[in-house]
Design goal:
The protein is an alpha/beta fold and about 160 residues long. The chain is built from six helices and five strands; from the N terminus they run E-H-E-H-E-H-H-H-E-H-E. It starts with 10 loop residues before the first strand and ends in a 6-residue tail after the last strand.
Length: about 160
């Protein structure tokens, strides 16, 4: 991915649903991502290669850093709402969560990192960014920094 016309480094997002780890890492490498920001509350996965340690090791092999900002993850009740297809409830829960002290501290940390010029990518499960909390994180960082947001999509299996 090329830099946006604005000259600002983009903030990327990606979801790994329906993808294998190699395709996700290839997409990140193609976009020249420096650091993946894991925005899952629980950085474990039944999908091979996507649990925290495995993912960090796979990214490291390709020269991509890894940072888990657990406080930006969706609380349990939000994840339950999402699994039940109650997106309005998820959005309400997550909106309140973003106002917590821990989430604000981690948003500040993410904003500082974004301002460093590193190419960052927010990672979570959902393939469609409009169905995932990372969309709101990206919008918040964009509001704070003016960075354009680009949503990456890895090749399927």
């Amino acid at each position: 991915m090329a830099r946006k016309a604005s000259g600002k480094t983009p903030l990327f997002t990606i979801g790994y649903e329906q993808a294998v780890v190699g395709n996700v890492i290839d997409e990140l490498a193609e976009a020249k991502v420096d650091v993946v920001i894991d925005t899952r509350a629980v950085a474990a996965s039944r999908k091979p290669g996507f649990s925290k340690r495995q993912l960090a090791a796979g990214l490291d092999e390709r020269g991509i850093g890894y940072l888990h900002l657990q406080g930006l993850g969706t609380p349990k009740e939000g994840r339950e709402a999402a699994r039940s297809g109650k997106m309005d409830k998820l959005f309400k829960i997550y909106s309140a969560h973003l106002k917590t002290a821990r989430a604000q501290e981690e948003l500040d940390e993410l904003t500082t990192l974004a301002k460093s010029g590193k190419r960052l990518c927010l990672l979570c499960f959902e393939r469609d960014h409009t169905q995932c909390h990372r969309q709101w994180i990206a919008e918040e960082v964009q509001a704070r920094t003016g960075m354009p947001v680009t949503h990456l999509v890895a090749k399927l299996f």
